[in-house]
Amino acid sequence: MSEQKTVHFIIERQDGPDSKPYTEEFLVPYRPALNVVAALMEIQKKPVTKDGKKTTPVVWECNCLEKVCGACMMVINGKARQACATLVDQIPQPIRLAPARTFPVIRDLQIDRSVMFESLKRIRGWIDVDGSWEVNTAPIQNPYTAATAYEIAHCMTCGCCLEACPNVGPQSDFIGPAPTVQAYLFNLNPLGSFNKDKRLNALMEKGGITSCGNSQNCVQVCPKNIKLTTYLAQLNRDVNKQALKNIFNK
Amino acid sequence: MFHVTFYIRRLHSICGIVPMGLFLLEHVLTNAEAMGGPAAFNEAIARIALIPHNIMLVIEIFGLAIPFLFHMIYGLYIALQANNNPAQYGYTRNWQFALQRWTAIFLFVFLIIHVVDLRIFTKGGGTPISYALLDEMFNNMGWFVLYLLGMLAAIFHFCNGMTTLCMTWGIAKGPRAQSVVGKLMMLVCAVLCIVTIAFMASYKMH
Questions:
Q1: Rounded Cα–Cα distance for residues B53 and B48 (Å)
Q2: Across residues A137-144, what is the average pLDDT?
Q3: Nearest chain B alpha carbon to A234
Q4: Closest residue by Cα to residue A113 from A91, A80, A138, A89
Q5: Could you tell me how many CB contacts below 8 A there are between chain A and chain B?
Q6: Which residues in chain B are contacts of A171 at CB distance < 8 A?
Q7: Phi and psi dihedrals of B163, rounded to 5?
Q8: Helical segments of A46-174, H only
């Protein structure tokens, strides 16, 4: 019988939020259509390094396994992407895995992305349905912008765009492309548009849309192919108009 | 609500074209006269000197010095907010983004040297700027290379700045519009760079 084909992984690990990172190498038995999450599951079953040393299983997050939830975002061969949708056959080996260090690392490849939830709250990323007014049946979506809204609604807050953006990180207070563009989604909604001014004003605050430096990495790495730079330009237009309103409407 | 950051960022963007971009174009055009020889260059300088001294001083302080210092100092703050990563994400726009910041830091130093040396000490000290003065200065290869690089960096920074300005102000929105603006500005950049290399080389070729 021929020798078992293996896949070589070099994984950047870290035992805790404040511990020092180190790398460990693993050989995972190859099988057709193997993806990175499946390979990590193999390492979890048999946590033995390339040199035969027994180690702790590598920690990572995953959920849907079909590029919908965004949980398994990590840096694979230097680029932020979803581990579940990364097929071993399509990338060169050795495969280097690292946590997305734009976010605080909890352990190994597991990161804390709660900052994006905070940003979504900041831009008022919801639609207010309750109020002191009568609530009738919901208005219809504008059929001409529905396709755009559907596209932006695909955002799964995976954080690829934040990881790739040179302006997001500890050195800057930019909330990042994903939460910024969500403001446009809620502004497009017929009910959401009631609070359009509030969202645009939130984007004009420090760390909002003005921190975008147009490196355009976000649109390149977005796993859902959302035209982030287009909507950022649209929001730039909108906040400029809002600024004029703020100055001249009072 | 008063969005200080927003207005400062937009002012920084405007300062990049008026007056900085226009002043850069004036520099390229005036200096290009050097290709016509010493007489043509000195004549171009004399044309600028037709503006009365008092008016010129007001323009220089309020139209140039203050906007320049604002753009330079706030720009340095912006540049330091970026963690440049073109080695990891080697897309064209990301390289341009990083170059915009690298040229910014170089130009910050270069402009201080340039203005302090030629405007404050030389011209301010009573020596008029002339072809002969620059020719002697450029005989030193160090000054020649510094000025050539300074011009090329400023031209790139201006042209790429125009591209990002079109995005920042929501002028070029879609991928096609952004791509057209980007390519057009890089074409302008190439033309201005060729003109600059030509007039700088003319000092070495007589």
A1: 10
A2: 90
A3: B170
A4: A80
A5: 108
A6: 80-83
A7: -60, -50
A8: 114-122, 146-153, 160-164
Grouping H, G, I as helix, E, B as strand and the rest as coil, residue B196 is helix
Name the domain boundary from A87, A111, A135. Answer: A111
When computed from its CA atoms, the radius of gyration of chain B, rounded to whole angstroms, is: 18
Closest C-alpha to A230, from B15, B22, B26, B176:
B176
Indicate if A106 and A121 belong to the same structural domain. Answer: no
For residue B10, the distance in angstroms to the closest alpha carbon of chain A comes to 8
Rounded Cα gap, residues B101 and B95, in angstroms:
10
Task: Say if A144 falls within a structural domain.
Answer: yes
Phi and psi (nearest 5°) for A63? -145, -75
Contact B170 A233 (CB under 8 A): yes
Helices B141-168 + B92-114 axis angle, to 10: 130
In this complex, do B10 and A220 lie within 8 Å of one another by their Cβ atoms?
no
In this structure, what DSSP letter does residue B82 have?
-
Inter-chain CB proximity B78 and A213 less than 8 Å: yes
| ipTM of the complex model | 0.93
CB-based contacts of B202: which residues, under 8 Å, 6+ apart? Answer: B34, B35
| B170 close contact with A: CB closer than 8 A | yes
Fold observed for domain B4-204: 3 helical TM bundles of succinate and fumarate reductases (1.20.1300)
> Tokens 């979504």 — which residue?
A120
- One domain, residues A73 and A143: no
Are residues A151 and A244 both part of a single domain? yes
Say if residues B11 and B178 touch (Cβ distance below 8 Å).
Answer: no
Nearest to B94 among A174, A217, A236 (CB): A217
Contact residues for A138 (Cβ-Cβ < 8 A; gap 6+): A190, A191
A142, part of any domain: yes
| Residues facing residue A98 across a β-bridge | A75
- Residue B1: pLDDT band with limits 50, 70, 90: low
Asked whether residue A1 is assigned to any structural domain, the reply reads no
Task: Specify the DSSP element, H or E, that contains A105.
Answer: strand A105-107
For the record, the structure tokens of B3 come out as: 């969005």
Q: Where are the domains of chain B?
A: 4-204
Give percent of chain A with pLDDT exceeding 70.
Answer: 99
DSSP letter string, A148-205: HHHHHHT-----HHHHH-TT-STT-----HHHHHHHHHHHHSTTGGGGHHHHHHHHTS
**Final residue of a structural domain among A111, A140, A158:** A111
Q: In this predicted model, what pLDDT tens digit does every residue of B121-148 receive, in sequence order? A: 999 999 999 999 999 999 999 999 999 9
